[in-house]
Specification:
alpha/beta; Threonyl-tRNA Synthetase, Chain A, domain 2; 3 domains; five-stranded mixed beta sheet; TGS; kinase activity; ATP binding; TGS-like
């Protein structure tokens, strides 16, 4: 017998009892289905068995590990159904390109015509598999054997990926004989995957899946609210194809061949070209006096604003940087979170009236004394920094609320040019395993905060969910109002960030709540060969996080 501690209560179970059997016993206490368990701080699938005394924690779709497992399993189910319906002989590959509007954009390649009728049959087949509750099997194979298997199944992205894996064995999953590799865990059988929808979209289709806010409801895909973002994401995929580096295996090949410096230069040139295009569009309309730059955390807004300023100067304009943070209300008057900490994410933490008064005065040609917010004292100060706008002057304003009209309510719409900046990773692990853009930004922030603020990786991981909540509430709803979007992700950066992030992640104690996420990120970074940072240009957005930038960031 083994003693299993669940929510502080000790229970005895025979050695060999499956976690699924224990989960069934506790399921009535949960509104949502139990998908995964944590054993002594480590994730385990439900088919695993009790082998020793342990502490057990249940994960449902309302938890991040749970919803990630659900999404991964649903993608696997969709692939099985698509290959069965369309016929593997008619399919070159099916790629999971990116997430969009609480779903995934999927693009099939091959001779099978992508019709609504075909997708309806795929949906119907998926529901058949759900009703059948087919076990999702897992087996461990030698890495060399896995490479041969991937080649046989024409999964060439995976074949190239595993040529650079250090591990000797690989876990493969299968549904009714359809076998694939996935980065992460799966649900126990197809009966768990009850909520999904498939919607034709552009050259592919959307696989819509529940979010952890409501794991039993499939969100509606509002295409009209995602058109600009979709075009930027589509462009990023084409960038990856143009560079011939759309997945990690291809990147590792470039690194191993000694060609990474050329790739870095090409990637940086592509970004500079885009920044120059934005500057040219602003310069073509001299009525624009306010460049409003917004984006989520660690998207590289500061470096982007500096590089845009350089390009604006090349257009004959005189840019002046303005940080919206300098208009924070004094800390004593700041809104607070329920736990008593200060909330710097909400619009109310800014002195909106003073901001509008100053900007309106500048637009009218008046001289204005500009504030500076001192984070150490928590107060706004005035130190004789005066500004007056001339004919060619333009303000480059950066802040998370810059796309929200409530921030700049008094400024004429025609005087503003809005730019949305985000790190929309164009690289995927392979054709079926995408890299979430949030992972890239989390690693960026972890590295930067350790370098500039002395914050531990544990601290960064702990506060990340709060940061993400703020983005969902105050940034993402306004992204489609941007005049232009800029993708700040670089195809090579995770190979560089890896060298800085791994030691930080290894420093997280095993007994801490953040260890599970640290372990996931370490496994993720292990896919990449490392790259030395010496040859990264000093004006690169990557420098904002690893250090050595020529700008004050």
């Amino acid at each position: 017998m083994a003693i299993v501690t669940i929510d502080g209560t000790k229970r005895e179970y025979p050695i060999g009892t499956t976690y699924q059997d224990i989960a069934k016993e506790y399921q009535p206490q949960y509104d949502d289905e139990i998908l995964l368990v944590g054993i002594n701080g480590k994730l385990r699938e439900l088919h695993k068995t009790v082998q020793f005394d342990c502490s057990l924690h249940f994960f449902t779709g309302r938890d991040q590990p749970g919803i990630q497992t659900y999404h991964r399993s649903a993608i696997f189910l969709m692939l099985k159904a698509y290959y069965d319906v369309a016929g593997s002989e008619n399919i070159e590959k099916v790629t999971v390109d990116f997430s969009l509007g609480k779903g995934y954009y999927i693009q099939p390649h091959g001779t099978a015509p992508l019709t609504e009728e075909l997708l309806n049959r795929v949906m119907a087949r998926m529901r058949e598999y759900v009703d059948q509750k087919i076990p999702i099997m897992k087996r461990s194979v030698n890495t060399d054997d896995a490479i041969e298997l991937f080649h046989k199944h024409r999964m060439y992205d995976k074949e190239r990926l595993f040529r650079y894996r250090r591990v000797s064995r690989v876990n493969l999953y299968s549904i009714g004989g359809f076998e694939d590799y996935f980065y992460g865990y799966m649900v126990q059988n197809t009966g768990y995957i009850r909520y999904f929808n498939i919607i034709p979209y552009d050259e592919g289709f959307m696989l819509m899946l529940p979010q952890k806010e409501n794991p039993q409801e499939v969100p509606v895909f509002e295409a009209e609210k995602k058109q600009k973002l979709y075009q930027v994401l589509k462009e990023s995929v084409k960038w990856g194809e143009r560079l011939k580096v759309s997945h990690v295996g291809a990147l590792n090949e470039v690194i191993a061949a000694g060609d990474i410096n050329e790739l870095i230069l090409i990637q940086e040139a592509l970004q500079e070209k885009k920044i120059a295009e934005i500057a040219a569009r602003i310069g073509a309309d001299r009525s624009k006096k306010f460049v409003m730059i917004a984006g989520p955390s660690s998207s590289g807004k500061t470096t982007f604003s500096h590089r845009l300023s350089v390009q604006l100067k090349a257009q004959g304009m005189i840019p002046h940087p303005i940080a919206v943070d300098d208009y924070f209300v004094n800390r004593i008057n700041s809104p607070k979170n329920p736990d008593g900490s200060y909330n710097y994410e909400v619009l109310e933490c800014l002195d909106i009236d003073q901001f509008n008064k100053d900007m309106t005065a500048l637009l009218a040609g008046e001289t204005v004394e500009m504030p500076r917010y001192q984070f150490k004292t928590g107060e706004r100060e005035y130190r004789g920094d005066y500004l007056k706008l001339g004919k060619d002057d333009i303000l480059v304003i950066e802040g998370i609320h810059c796309l929200n009209d409530r921030l700049s309510y008094s400024l004429p719409k025609e005087s503003k040019f809005r730019v949305y900046v985000s790190a929309l990773t164009q690289l995927n692990i392979d054709e079926h395993n995408r890299i979430p853009t949030t992972d890239c930004r989390l690693i960026r922030r972890m590295v930067r905060d350790a370098r500039t603020r002395g914050a531990s990786a544990q601290d960064t991981i702990r506060m990340w969910p709060t940061v993400r909540e703020g983005e969902e509430a105050y940034i993402f709803p306004f992204q489609e109002s941007a005049d232009m979007m800029f993708n700040s992700a670089t195809v090579y950066e995770l190979s560089v960030l890896k060298q800085y992030a791994e030691p930080l992640l290894f420093g997280i104690p095993r007994e801490s709540p953040e260890y599970m996420e640290a372990k996931r990120l370490l496994k993720f970074l292990d896919y990449f060969l490392g790259v030395n940072s010496e040859d990264i240009p000093r004006n690169s957005i990557v420098r904002e996080f690893i250090g050595g930038s020529c700008f004050k960031v």
